[in-house]
UniProtKB/TrEMBL annotation:
Membrane found in the keyword field: yes
Domain HTH luxR-type residue range list: 465-530
GO MF annotation list: DNA binding
The protein's name in its UniProt record: Helix-turn-helix transcriptional regulator
Residue ranges of the region described as Disordered: 1-33
Keyword rRNA-binding: no
GO biological process: one example: regulation of DNA-templated transcription
InterPro entries for the chain: Sig_transdc_resp-reg_C-effctor, Tscrpt_reg_LuxR_C, WH-like_DNA-bd_sf
Composition bias, Basic and acidic residues: 15-24
Keywords: DNA-binding, Membrane, Transcription, Transcription regulation, Transmembrane, Transmembrane helix
Length: 531
């Protein structure tokens, strides 16, 4: 990107610098992003992007094939096929959630024995992939031979689920670290394609026999591992830009930053609600969805998710802006529509079922992008952010499942339909609370990497350009850079070891020099320089 410097800016008087803007609202001395003719989003598929596409798609496909009702573990004992699936779901999700949360809050290890630790870490991916494949194959075979619902089957399925949960936790952290290493503009289209491609594998699972299920259960973990190996140090092509390694700021547990709990709580609410509505579709309706329509559900989910994501990516390219709130709004809309459609059209469950799946696909994509933004903007270690956010997602799934099962147990069979309006109402209330209070869109603005040109160094450079152009002092520049990352006065006070009054004084001075009044205007001022 071509940079144009205003050579006279440094020598201007203080009063002349304060209000200096170039045509169109651009900061004097800042790069002119509008002069570039390069695409905002990259759609090419080089070797590294290909590995990301197929490796990440294989991982998320394998995970969802095991936790969804129409996936690999469906049996023929009763409608819903939950003899093996239900305990496996609980065992896998609880284990994955616990391991991810522990990883998020663990302390950095000591430096001693680094060589031994490195050797163990090199072996862990293949060990995790092997454990996941063996547990998944055993669970598929168990569901194929199950003829009754007994405690021995539940116990064995739970153990197998716990083994699979270890693979899910490890590879969630591993792929999170890979995604965190790159410029999101280069991999956003690939990430969306992977999250759409996962639904394509549900069609052969529904249409064909157990041989296909066994093959997918065993092949997908090793396919994901094989693609992940290519991202070892030195294994990434020079043509794919990388972001500088993340240097966690502050002391103690980084995921205690207020943004990460907000993301985690919001994803927990969305995942809990979607799983709750999913399960209620199966266990609380007198006329469940025809099994012959299962394949068509996933074709519609694949088509709808690809269409919605394609439109959003097209708008981002047209506006040349990183508009992650479009994913968030659309996921919220689909989740609300799916929740409301359940009680209104429970005799025609196809619509509700498919719409809720689309909502799940969109909210998953949104949270991966937001987690990446937190790692970039707040300089958080990937394992802390990914562990906290997706640990609560996996915890939400068995919670939503248990809530639906409790309602099934509480209500008589003939009263199930009468409870569906309450199901829809509770689901909508939880979604609205998450969207309006836990993670409102104003928080997304503070995490928008469009303000950073999608790299740590770019934000620092732009802040220094603005500081030079507007005549900020060294201390004001430090505070300016922290405010640009969405930090508040309390955080700045602790980070720079100065009093709150001093922070407020410097903030007022730099606001006066910049000609603004709020932190929102400060972010907009930086964004203006992107064109």
């Amino acid at each position: 990107m071509t940079e144009e410097r205003n050579n006279g800016a440094a020598g201007d008087s203080d009063s002349g610098v304060r209000g200096r803007r170039e045509g169109g609202g651009r900061i004097a001395g800042a790069p002119d992003a509008r002069s570039t003719r390069e695409p905002f989003l990259s759609v090419s598929l080089c070797g590294a992007k290909g590995r990301l596409l197929f490796g990440f798609a294989a991982f998320v496909s394998w995970t969802n094939l095991l936790i969804c009702f129409e996936g690999l573990l469906r049996d023929s004992v009763a409608y819903g096929g939950g003899v093996v699936h239900d305990p496996f779901l609980v065992g896998a999700c609880v284990t994955a959630a616990l391991l991810l949360v522990v990883a998020a809050f663990r302390r950095a290890g000591s430096q001693g024995g680094r060589a031994a630790v490195s050797r163990v870490r090199r072996r862990l991916p293949v060990i995790a992939a092997s454990a996941g494949a063996v547990c998944a194959i055993a669970a598929v075979l168990l569901s194929a031979i199950a003829v009754s619902n007994g405690p021995h089957i539940w116990f064995l399925a739970t153990i197998l689920g716990a083994g699979a949960g270890c693979f899910v936790a490890y590879f969630t952290l591993a792929w999170g670290s890979v995604i965190a290493a790159f410029d999101m503009r280069d991999i956003l289209a690939v990430l969306c394609a992977a999250l759409c491609l996962q639904w394509a594998l549900f069609v052969p699972v529904v249409l064909f026999g157990p041989e296909v299920k066994v093959a997918l259960a065993g092949i997908l973990p090793f396919l994901s591992w094989g693609c992940l190996r290519g991202f070892d140090d030195g294994g990434v092509e020079e043509g794919l830009p990388r972001i500088a390694p993340c240097t966690p700021s502050g002391k103690g547990t980084e995921c205690c930053d207020g943004v990460v709990p907000r993301l985690s709580a919001a994803l927990f609410c969305f995942a809990l609600t979607i799983e709750f509505v999913w399960t209620c579709n199966v266990v609380m309706t007198s006329e469940p969805l025809d099994e012959g329509l299962f394949w068509l559900v996933y074709v519609c989910v694949l088509g709808a998710a690809a269409l919605v994501m394609g439109i959003i990516l097209g708008l981002m390219e047209r506006w040349r802006a990183y508009r992650m709130e479009l994913f968030y709004r659309t996921a919220f809309a689909f989740a609300v529509v799916g929740s409301v459609a359940l009680p209104l059209s429970y005799h025609h469950l196809f619509f509700s079922y498919a719409v809720v799946y689309v909502a799940y696909a969109l909210i998953t994509a949104t949270m991966w992008m937001l987690a990446w933004a937190v790692m970039l903007m707040r300089k958080r270690a990937p394992y802390r952010v990914i562990g906290c956010v997706f640990g609560l997602q996996f915890l939400a799934l068995p919670c939503g499942f248990a809530a639906a099962k409790f309602m099934q147990w509480y209500a008589a069979a003939q009263a199930d339909a009468d409870l569906l309006p309450y199901v829809g109402f509770v689901a909508v209330v939880v979604l609205v609370a998450a969207y309006a209070f836990l993670l409102p869109e104003r928080v997304l603005l503070l995490l928008s990497p469009r303000l950073l040109k999608l790299s740590h160094e770019s934000l620092d450079d732009r802040c220094r350009d603005a500081a030079a152009a507007f005549g900020l002092t060294e201390r004001e520049t430090e505070i300016f850079m922290l405010l640009a990352r969405g930090r508040d006065v309390g955080y700045i006070e602790k980070t720079l070891f100065i009093s709150r009054n001093t922070v407020n004084t410097h903030r007022k001075n730099l606001y006066r020099k910049l000609g603004i009044h709020t932190q929102q205007e400060l972010l907009s001022l930086i964004e203006d320089s992107l064109g």
